[in-house]
Design a protein that fits this description.
mainly alpha; 15 helices; about 75% helix
Length: about 325
Amino acid sequence: MELLTSYIRKIFKNIIFIFKSLISLERIRILLTLFSVGFVGLIICINFNKITQEEINIKSIILLAIGCLVSVLSIIINGLAWKQIIRWLGYKENNINIIYLFIRTNSLKYLPGGIWHFLERFRVLSSSLSPEQAFASVLLEPFLMMSAALFLLPVTDLKNITLLIFLLPSVLLARRFRNSLLMQLGVIKNLQLKKIVSKFNLSRAFVSQSNPSSSFPLTPFVIEVLFILLKFAAFWFCLKAFMIDDYIPTSRWLFTFSLAWTIGLLVPSAPGGIGIFESFVLLTIGENIPEELLLLALISYRLITSIADLIVPGILFLKRIFYRLN
């Protein structure tokens, strides 16, 4: 068992080293984002006439509306997963409504820089938790999302044992690897959030304040997998709206979506992974499906998820104003 643990730690350190190298190359990330957005724009221009000739009927509108509602639900579920991971770490959020905080700050990811939702969450959490605890809470949320998305890849093809490598991030969530994971994630995020990390010492004391309630964060992980499945469901309704859902098996759609979504998460130069997600889908399965229909589905998915990201905090804001007036 110790040998296996040591082996996993070595793999983990190598992955983190590669990841840190990629993160430090800010220009490459920006160029990759610009290339992806440009590529999608070029494909849209090439297929512009075909796209404008497509008619969207009532059935398609209803399916897209359902997809938007599913996206709204996914945001709430994502907030619940974050609340559970904070509790798993052993932190007491006291009077802070974690789900409300998550929803309220979710739309900030669309601001230039892609870090403002992290900054606001850290600021609010710091009023109840120590800076180290607040930072750790912010760090684990995107890693939990990534782990859940990659976990679904082997599930789509149980016969392909090579896909088991994508389970590694899930393994690293275990309490045994907690210290190493938080330290390495802290070093990575330090490149983006230097003003935050300068407020405290990023050392072993940084991770010693957490006391996980179990050996693995099973509850938040399951909820996060549900979040990814809801995101995929919203995507599937977009495919269904343009009748391309049955061009390839659903398992392959799920594989492509999960991997594309993860890549969009890891390349945060563009808000919400705009361009990265669409480019990956077009490059991997575009040749098997009418390009103009796939483009419409991708544009629709981006539109409904963006609306959901903005409408949920908007509703909460109006609700707060209403209560104040009464």
